[in-house]
Amino acid sequence: MHRSPRHRVAAGIAAVATVAVLAGCSATGAASTGSDSKTVTLYTADGLNDGDSSFYKTVFADFRKDTGITVNVVEAGSGEVVQRAAKEKTNTQADVLVTLPPFIQQADQQGLLAKYTPAGSEHVADDNKAADGTYTTMVDNVIGFIRNTSSVPSAPTTWKDLLDADYRGKLQYSTPGVAGDGTAMLLLAQQVLGKQAVDGYMRDLQENNVGPSDSTGALAAKVDKGELSIANGDVQMNLAQQASMPNLGIFFLDGEDGKPTTMSVPYVAGLVKDAPHAAAGKKLLDYLYSEKVQEEATTVAGGLPARDDVTPTGPEAEKVTKLLDGVTVVRPDWDAVLKDLDDTVDRWNTATGTL
């Protein structure tokens, strides 16, 4: 892994498996096949579909107006959407896949993605897309932590702070290997504390941990209500949630150098191999990388555009910039992460007694 001072980051999230039907998007309508398809099915990690004014609801309603194509959305955890697509490999149901690393790399390795270069994606940096053209970062983002601002008026600053006995039974984080944010949190802990030391740390943190959680997104409501004091989170998603969750505070823990440090976790999109509505899927991908939608990655989603030629302005852009000011962003080699993922998760399971 290497560090980058840039504030443009790559995003992600994981959640418990659910099927979500967006406003203006039907999951039951009859679908035609071929180039005239009026439906397209998206398998996606959660985080962009939170509330009536969410990124997906906004973008897909406009997409339907412009093209006549309805987007059917199946929303689940970052790893679970890949697992589902893999199980359906001989009877493909999805047209487009959006998830976060290292699960998008896993999907690519399993041969689940087709090569396609969306219009506009030439403006996405080479290190934010697959060399063979199978996937491209769509919305940039970073992980973080969240606190209940009433019960925790001053945010913790170090990883050691999370071991405080005051958080016993009031702290929870999403499960590494299942949730993308939970996986990134564990990787960041390894980066800051060291791979060997992190085993003992996670064992100690387990004293405070409520228990496993497939969903990062579900933790925010618990923090806002005061059921939890501290949880891991995702900046894009948590910024969007603050509108309806007034007690939600976002913070970062210090890195090795004593400066706030986070990790990039992108929402990454790709065309599914043997997609039943490939033509409609390509149109959707082209739309997602248009300048208008990339601006909405910030103004609607609270994340950052993947395109380096799009610079959103306005209150939401200022909010994101202010939050990330002075924060160091760790950018992993996700292919290397995927190679070691089983061992990383096994070490965590052993340290926490999860198995």
Layout: helices, strands, pairs:
Elements: E1 2-4, E2 39-45, H1 55-67, E3 70-76, H2 78-87, E4 96-99, H3 103-109, E5 113-114, E6 136-140, E7 143-148, E8 171-172, H4 180-193, H5 197-205, H6 217-225, E9 230-234, H7 235-241, E10 248-251, E11 253-254, E12 260-263, E13 267-272, H8 278-288, H9 291-299, E14 304-305, H10 315-324, E15 328-331, H11 334-352
Parallel strand pairs: 2-3, 2-4, 8-9, 12-15
Antiparallel strand pairs: 1-15, 4-13, 5-13, 6-13, 6-14, 7-9, 7-10, 11-12
Helix pairs in contact: 2-3, 5-11
Can you describe this structure in just a few lines?
It contains eleven helices and 15 strands. The chain has helices at 55-67, 78-87, 103-109, 180-193, 197-205, 217-225, 235-241, 278-288, 291-299, 315-324, 334-352, and strands at 2-4, 39-45, 70-76, 96-99, 113-114, 136-140, 143-148, 171-172, 230-234, 248-251, 253-254, 260-263, 267-272, 304-305, 328-331.
